[in-house]
């Protein structure tokens, strides 16, 4: 599957793999170890497929939720959860993926542990830097994706036009039409 990367940072896109957290049933993009492997590849953390098992997936989901908790705390200007902080820092201490030069160019190689470390170190970098002031949650009420709003004047509203921007714009259009319809009806009965 093709994973979306609308966040602008691994620390935001990794939590985004549990999509639509504001629905009663969020959508899990990392439903199998293979999906996690695809995410690492598409995120550019590694080029080769990393052999991953169910234990790796469990660890990844724990790390993901810890990263998400820290991001939310940073956005709300609240203290970090100590367990989440300890977990992310533990992974951040591990070695990260290694770039290698090959005839084809730069090749990124990673073990599962190195891939986790890449996400954890990105979390440390993003949350401790000035980019954290650009965090914004998508304006689609169902969508929980947080992104870095680098637009001029901080006007970006959606994680992506498809589906979120389109969906909200379509809903606003329908609401306007309904309101116009009510007005027309009121005009007729007057
Ligand atoms: Zn969205």
Q: How does this model look, in words?
A:
This protein has 190 residues and is mostly helical. Helices cover 49% and strands 11% of the residues. The chain is built from six helices and six strands, in the order αββαααββαββα. It has helices spanning 10-13, 33-42, 54-76, 82-92, 112-128, 161-189; strands at 18-19, 27-28, 98-102, 105-109, 135-137, 146-148. The chain has a two-stranded antiparallel sheet with strand order 1-2. A two-stranded antiparallel ribbon has the order 3-4. A hairpin with an 8-residue loop joins strand 5 and strand 6 (146-148). Helix 3 packs across helix 4, helix 3 packs parallel to helix 5 and helix 4 (82-92) crosses helix 5 (112-128). The chain starts with 9 loop residues before the first helix and ends with a helix. The model has no long low-confidence stretch (mean pLDDT 93). Zinc ion binds next to loops.
